[in-house]
DNA sequence: AATGTAGTCAACCGCAGGCAT
DNA sequence: CATGCCTGCGGTTGACTACAT
């Protein structure tokens, strides 16, 4: 890959280099980000002499050079999460990616395309998805009942469909998904605010559903309560979800590690790009 | 061993939203 | 308020690799 100078046929268009990045270019970009932080991508070429567009620089950084990226194959557990979140959000890859620390939207998108788009999903996936949707519905109705008992029913919840309505098409793609996690990060008591005002973004509510589902006990507590308190370490739900989805102990262990934050510190340098949920 | 095919991944493109001027 | 620029997102493309024949 690296050093292959002839990707994409053309090497320069309008003065911009295109095609695969060289290690030299990578170095320059990393150095630039280290000095100036993320953002201002259009000025990178001026600052570093790179003949790359800001867009290209950002993409390279986000998808490849970011230090917090997780390398390697998507695990079955991550796959389950992708499936579940895709059931909720459709092709909102960046939103889904925020729930998978170290994974990029591009990666998830590619993974989905290769594994689910062409062929039929595996039966396990199908079952997981079906069960997920069913449970979510059940949980919603339970929540609704609880809230009714408490005398408050958020309207947004009432309007939720089976969970697959938001397919990522432009019609309601109003927020590009950025609000979900950011809100969670800066506003630890989303649920409280939601209950009080009920004016949070649709995705916030969906996210709560997802989290409530994926880790019914502790994740919900984390999300609703002490979310993202100082990039903390929150090992969460060793086996709850895996009992539902996985194939036994093995999954239990990995689910546990998946939700474990020990290795997923919100690196200040990369915080902008990697604000994970918890 | 050579060739064909499918799978994977990095990168590009166009579009839309947000923000500064 | 209008306009232009920057950034981020989703879709698509093309090169490389692995596997099958």
TrEMBL record:
Superkingdom in the source lineage: Eukaryota
HTH myb-type domain span: 17-65, 66-120
Compositionally biased intervals (Low complexity): 161-170
GO terms assigned for molecular function: DNA-binding transcription factor activity; sequence-specific DNA binding
CC terms in the record's Gene Ontology section: nucleus
Keywords recorded for this protein, A-Z: DNA-binding, Nucleus, Repeat, Transcription, Transcription regulation
InterPro entries: EOBI/EOBII-like_plant, Homeodomain-like_sf, Myb_dom, SANT/Myb
Annotated localization: Nucleus
PANTHER family referenced in this protein's UniProt entry, alphabetically: MYB TRANSCRIPTION FACTOR-RELATED-RELATED, OS04G0508500 PROTEIN
Pfam families (alphabetical): Myb_DNA-binding
Domain Myb-like: 17-65, 66-116
SMART domains reported in the protein's UniProt record: SANT
Name the UniProt record assigns to this protein: Transcription repressor MYB6-like
Region listing for Disordered, in residue ranges: 151-177
């Amino acid at each position: 890959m690296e050093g292959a100078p002839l990707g994409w046929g053309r090497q320069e268009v309008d003065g911009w280099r295109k095609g695969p990045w060289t290690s030299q270019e990578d170095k320059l970009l990393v150095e630039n980000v280290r000095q100036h932080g993320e953002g201002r991508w259009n000025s990178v070429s001026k600052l570093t002499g790179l003949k790359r567009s800001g867009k290209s620089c950002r993409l390279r950084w986000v998808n490849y050079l970011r230090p917090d990226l997780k390398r390697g194959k998507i695990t079955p557990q991550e796959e389950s999460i992708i499936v579940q979140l895709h059931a909720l959000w459709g092709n909102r890859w960046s939103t889904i990616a925020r729930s998978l620390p170290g994974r990029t939207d591009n990666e998830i998108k590619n993974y989905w395309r290769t594994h689910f788009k062409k062929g039929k999903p595996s039966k396990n996936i199908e079952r997981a998805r079906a069960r997920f949707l069913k449970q979510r519905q059940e949980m919603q109705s339970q929540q609704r009942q609880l809230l009714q008992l408490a005398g408050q029913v958020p309207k947004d919840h009432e309007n939720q469909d089976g969970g697959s309505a938001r397919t990522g098409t432009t019609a309601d793609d109003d927020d590009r998904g950025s609000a979900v996690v950011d809100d969670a990060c800066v506003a630890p008591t989303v649920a409280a605010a939601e209950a009080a005002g009920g004016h949070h973004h649709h995705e916030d509510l969906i996210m709560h559903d997802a989290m409530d589902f994926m880790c019914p006990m502790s994740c919900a507590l984390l999300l609703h309560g002490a979310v993202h308190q100082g990039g903390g370490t929150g090992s969460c739900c060793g086996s709850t979800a895996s009992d539902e989805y996985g194939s036994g102990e093995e999954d239990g262990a990995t689910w546990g590690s998946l939700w474990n934050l020990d290795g997923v510190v919100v690196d200040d340098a990369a915080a902008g790009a990697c604000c994970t949920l918890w």
